[in-house]
Amino acid sequence: MSEQTDRTGVAGDTPPAPEAHGHDGHYWYHGDKAALTRRLKRIEGQVRGIQRMVEADEYCIDILTQISASTKGLQAVALNLLEGHLAHCVAEAQTSGDPTAAQAKVKEASDAVARLLRT
Questions:
Q1: Which end of the chain is more exposed for a tag (fewer CB within 10 A), N or C?
Q2: What is the structure's pLDDT at 90?
């Protein structure tokens, strides 16, 4: 049995079924996608800057400082997505009247928190 990769690219949880999308075929963050994308592009630029710093043999503490800043940026994005998941996906499942679906969404959130804490 092969292990599937979740939407973060990490082996483990299986990706959600297409019906996991919201009523309009989009996830809750669809309206904030532009802001989320801008933030991720900024983090991507920071990571590229770190790569350039390593290639230029810059001082290790300066590189570590930039790594810390990039990590904090990713953590902020992750917390935003987790907060939205709780406010939208978990809350919707809780009010759906389907206790199995509600339990599954809470488990997803719990597993996501565990992955974030491991990093």
A1: N
A2: 92
